[in-house]
Amino acid sequence: MRRKGAHAIIGHRAARVPVQSMSSVSDIHDSNCMIVVGAGVAGLAAARRLRRAGKRVLVLEQADMVGGRVQTAMIAGCQYELGAEFLASFYTRTLALIAELGLNHELRPIPSRAAVFRAGRLHTLWPNPRVALTRLIRTRNKLSLSYLVGSLMRHNGLLDLQRFARAYPIDDTDVSTYAARHLSDELLEYVLQPALSGIFYWTPERTSRALLLIVLRAGLSRPTGLQLLTLRKGLNQLPQAMAHDLDVRQAVRVRAVERYSHGFLVRTSGGAAPTELRCAGVVVATTAAVVPQLCPWLDADRLEFFRAVRYSRTAQLTVGAANLPQSHYGLLFPRRETPFLASATLQGVKNPHSSPPGREAFCLHMSGPAANALHELDNDRLAALMLSELRRLLPAYYPGDPLFRQVSRWPEALPEFDVGHFARLQHFAEGAIELPGLTFAGDYVGGPFIEGAIVSGEQAAERLLQL
Ligand SMILES: Cc1cc2nc3c(=O)[nH]c(=O)nc-3n(C[C@H](O)[C@H](O)[C@H](O)COP(=O)(O)OP(=O)(O)OC[C@H]3O[C@@H](n4cnc5c(N)ncnc54)[C@H](O)[C@@H]3O)c2cc1C
What we know:
By secondary structure, the protein is of the alpha+beta class. Among the domains are: 8-69 and 236-309 and 416-466, 3-Layer(bba) Sandwich (FAD/NAD(P)-binding domain); 114-220, Guanine Nucleotide Dissociation Inhibitor, domain 1 (Orthogonal Bundle), CATH 1.10.405. The chain is 32% helix and 21% strand. The protein has 17 helices and 21 strands. The chain has helices at 41-52, 92-100, 130-133, 139-143, 145-154, 175-182, 185-200, 209-220, 237-243, 290-294, 300-307, 347-350, 368-373, 379-393, 421-429, 443-446, 450-466; strands at 8-10, 33-37, 56-60, 72-75, 78-81, 87-88, 107-109, 114-118, 121-126, 228-231, 248-249, 253-260, 263-269, 275-279, 281-284, 314-321, 330-332, 341-346, 360-366, 405-410, 438-440. The strands form five sheets. It has a seven-stranded mixed sheet, sandwiched between helices. A five-stranded parallel sheet has the order 11-3-2-15-21, with helices on one face. Strands 1-4-5 form a three-stranded antiparallel sheet, with no helix packed on it. A hairpin with a 2-residue loop joins strand 12 and strand 13. The longest helix is centred in the last third of the chain and has 17 residues, at 450-466. It is globular, with a radius of gyration of 22 Å. The model is unreliable at 1-7 and 11-25 (pLDDT under 50). It binds flavin-adenine dinucleotide. Flavin-adenine dinucleotide (FAD) is lined by residues 37-43, 60-63, 68-70, 83-86, 253-254, 285-287, 290, 314, 410, 413-414, 442-443, 448-450, 453.
């Protein structure tokens, strides 16, 4: 899914189990045995739930580490994230899981400062009251925020972070059209667009207003305000802990999931010989695009559900830098200022213990449209382009001759919650997509972040247990 460079990835590398040594597994055709495809946080959450219900569970993962899009890396003593960057205080299920796993002492609050770049300056956008104080947008345009607050109140009952399908009645327009009608161009281009681009690599034209309202409501729902969080040794600590006492087979690619008279047949490759495993039920916890490859026998309506999900793309350039300004953790770049950069994060501000004194990993994220247009560019040219753009916009952040340089790519970064996706989720919630013994999990079902993936995994396991 992504190209890896020479960095060390801090992942859970259980001893590799050659596929042919899984012969015992091919016996698992009693009703107690379940297979989970994918050891991202969705798959691991599903597996934990199934095991708690007394099932025998095997997780099959094509990569040689767990975590999927939650990967922490280390280079020259500097720790940084390759995928997911932070947790949010409204991730109630994720935080409960962290407590269950005994990881509470590893949680670290991230200093709450994010800024938007406009006309040569950084404007602090957050913590919360700053959006009212900042000079980023004109006062009369700030007033249009009251329309958003009114919308949140009007649709409150539909905005449920654990049940995205409920927002289907307001999945009627994209954020760009919605802003043109009810907000302001400035609010769109200097607040909403950079936030959607910097966090999800999406455009407002391909984001449903339902998604915007769900996320805003979640962000404003905590009486203590929104807090971003990380784990001391990086976010991959979470999938590692989730996988700890599960039977996870790494470097095993599932090629097909087929029905047979007593359950399902899972065909794998990854060892010297292909293997067939029989089980009573399967949770497929991959990205949506993988499902039609594994289950081409699904009917056209079901296949269309998975094929309709589109993903944003991004590329990340991580450089080792010294003496960067330490005033903000996250920087957001509006498309009106640059077509190339979406956001940047300073890993040393985020977690001062993640790097040796005086240096840190500085991560630059490419915008979705630029990553699509430039995906054939080689790593050196991509890095040079991003660095020269950074130098043009914010010379104080330009690392000069960096201590190290690393490019990583995500061709499937975040599933787009575009207009129509909530209707698809409603179809899914009505039971039109899954089959007895076969359920699906992933952030494209549960919400485009770690919380959504975990919730979707647990819910997919519950549905499997009910069948
Ligand atoms: C750059 C980036 C930044 C992000 N930032 C944040 C953030 O700050 N906060 C946040 O909450 N979320 C963030 N996210 C989103 C978050 O990482 C994802 O929503 C979440 O990790 C998805 O989990 P998942 O289990 O659904 O999918 P994945 O993590 O994609 O897991 C799917 C797994 O299935 C495996 N697989 C696929 N096909 C097969 C096969 N045939 N056989 C066996 N295994 C297979 C894959 O290798 C993978 O391990 C970010 C994502 C990216 C890419």
